[in-house]
Amino acid sequence: MNINIRKYEIDGQLLAVIIEDKNNEYDGWMAFEQLKNASAELAVHKSSSTFLPFTEITEVYTYGDSEVTLQYCADTGDIDITCDSNSGMGTFLSKLVSSYNFVLVT
């Protein structure tokens, strides 16, 4: 099973999002757990936070000189990946795709 990632750019900043599986092989929580597990192997975990009542979960990792943030919203199932540098984001996504069950899609 591969988890689909779409990357995009807004105002010069590279961002990424886990997108829905059309075959229903994974749901948002399952994809977020896979992303956290891979991130923990690639980067150093920095902090976690949970915002209730909407059950928004944020995980922050240090990846090289960059800070990667994973955000999950249980209400919508949305998973966002952000980074404080475009080069850090590009390298992080490349590592996810080359070493784990993630695929960049258009």
Task: Summarize this structure briefly.
By secondary structure, the chain is α+β, with helices and mostly antiparallel strands. It has 2 helices and 7 strands.
Structure description:
- This protein is an alpha+beta fold and 106 residues long.
- It has two helices and seven strands; from the N terminus they run E-E-H-E-E-E-E-H-E.
- A seven-stranded mixed β-sheet has the order 3-4-5-6-2-1-7, covered by helices on one side.
- The longest helix has 15 residues.
- It is globular, with a radius of gyration of 13 Å.
- The mean pLDDT is 90.
How do the strands of the widest beta sheet line up side by side? 3-4-5-6-2-1-7
- Strand/helix succession: EEHEEEEHE
- Helix proportion range: 25-40%
Q: Can you count the beta strands?
A: 7
Shape descriptor: globular
Mean pLDDT value: 90
Q: Please, how many helices?
A: 2
Largest sheet: number of strands, sense, barrel closure: 7 strands, mixed
Percent of residues in beta strands: 35-45%
For this structure, the quaternary state is single chain
Radius of gyration: 13 Å
Helical/strand content category:
alpha+beta
**Unreliable segments (pLDDT under 50, ≥5 consecutive)?**
none
Give a quick set of tags describing it.
single chain; 106 residues; alpha+beta; 7-stranded mixed β-sheet; 2 helices
Per-chain topology:
Elements: E1 3-10, E2 13-18, H1 28-42, E3 44-51, E4 56-63, E5 66-73, E6 79-83, H2 86-99, E7 102-104
Parallel strand pairs: 1-7
Antiparallel strand pairs: 1-2, 2-6, 3-4, 4-5, 5-6
